[in-house]
């Protein structure tokens, strides 16, 4: 499908996404979206690329493109502070799970921002950044979803990647997927602004990967092992360590086999 047709198809599926910028190739859609502003207070803007050659993940990590996928950044108007956005990347995970489930995908959520197949392979990732100044702020929501991959792809953190087409789900066109995610994202953003992460906590925990199992949290300065006990009302990870619940708001989680 020609890239020029993507914008019209997205608008046909979801009128809440405007403006829309579709590119053949970009370094990072996060950079391409940085100056976009949603056309309405209840909608979002979108930068979408067929190929992304310098995608970013959390903590400066690289998002590798290997095959066909969705490479998108959505822009939401944000009259808020960074502290008020705690937990929103987990909400985006809930939104993505809803959309992918509608295509028949069975997926789970890995704290804080990955969507995995039930056997633990990485299907999708999320990056959230607040940009702008006191006059106008924007929330950038970067999303990558693998649609079709070459065999045995491995991420920079050693995770095995998986594509939507590998787990028995219907594989949508990129414009259809972009529109469906945008519509869901706008809806959860409104709820989050009113009620915070607490409104999504039960949903997130019900889909949590590794719940009740032993995990290791790499928080940079320290590594902590404990039983995964879910998240608190702000979306921070709860680990049971030596019989006590400890809470962590940043880090990378891996399973202990």
Report what the structure shows.
With 257 residues, this protein is of the alpha+beta class. The chain has two domains: 4-204, BirA Bifunctional Protein, domain 2; 210-255, SH3 type barrels (Roll). 22% of the residues lie in helices and 37% in strands. It is built from five helices and 14 strands. Strands 1-2-5-9-8-7-6 form a seven-stranded mixed β-sheet. It has a five-stranded antiparallel β-sheet with strand order 13-12-11-10-14. Helix 2 links the parallel strand 1 (17-26) and strand 2. It is globular, with a radius of gyration of 18 Å. The relative contact order is 0.16. The mean pLDDT is 91.
SSE blueprint:
Layout: H1 4-13, E1 17-26, H2 29-32, E2 44-52, E3 55-56, E4 62-63, E5 67-77, H3 88-102, E6 107-110, E7 114-117, E8 122-132, E9 137-149, H4 174-195, H5 201-206, E10 214-218, E11 223-231, E12 237-241, E13 244-248, E14 252-255
Parallel strand pairs: 1-2
Antiparallel strand pairs: 2-5, 3-4, 5-9, 6-7, 7-8, 8-9, 10-11, 10-14, 11-12, 12-13
Helix pairs in contact: 1-4, 3-4
Global structural class: alpha+beta
Q: What are the secondary-structure elements, in order, as H or E?
A: HEHEEEEHEEEEHHEEEEE
CATH superfamily of the largest domain: Bira Bifunctional Protein, Domain 2
Instruction: State the CATH class of the largest domain.
Output: Alpha Beta
User: pLDDT below 50 for ≥5 consecutive residues: which ranges?
Assistant: none
Q: What helical percentage do the residues reach?
A: 10-25%
């Amino acid at each position: 499908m020609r890239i020029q047709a993507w914008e019209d198809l997205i608008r046909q599926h979801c009128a809440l996404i405007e403006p829309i910028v579709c590119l053949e190739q970009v370094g990072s859609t996060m950079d391409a979206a940085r100056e976009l502003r949603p056309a309405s207070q209840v909608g979002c803007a979108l930068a979408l690329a067929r190929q992304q050659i310098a995608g970013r993940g959390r903590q400066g990590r690289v998002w590798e493109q290997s095959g066909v996928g969705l490479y998108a950044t959505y822009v939401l108007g944000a009259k808020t502070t960074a502290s008020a956005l705690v937990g929103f990347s987990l909400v985006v995970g809930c939104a993505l799970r809803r959309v992918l489930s509608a295509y028949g995908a069975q997926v789970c959520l890995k704290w804080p921002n990955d969507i995995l197949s039930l056997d633990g392979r990485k299907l999708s990732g999320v990056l959230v950044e607040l940009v702008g100044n006191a006059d106008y702020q924007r929330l950038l929501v970067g999303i990558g979803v693998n649609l079709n991959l070459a065999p045995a792809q491995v991420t920079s953190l050693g995770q095995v990647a998986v594509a939507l087409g590998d787990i028995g789900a219907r594989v949508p066109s990129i414009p259809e997927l972009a529109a469906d995610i945008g519509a869901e994202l706008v809806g959860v953003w409104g709820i989050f602004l009113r009620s915070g992460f607490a409104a999504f906590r039960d949903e997130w925990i019900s889909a949590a990967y590794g719940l009740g199992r032993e995990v290791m949290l790499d928080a940079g300065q320290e590594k902590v092992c404990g039983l995964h006990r879910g998240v608190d009302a702000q979306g921070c990870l709860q680990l049971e360590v030596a019989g006590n619940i400890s809470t962590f708001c940043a880090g990378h989680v891996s399973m202990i086999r």
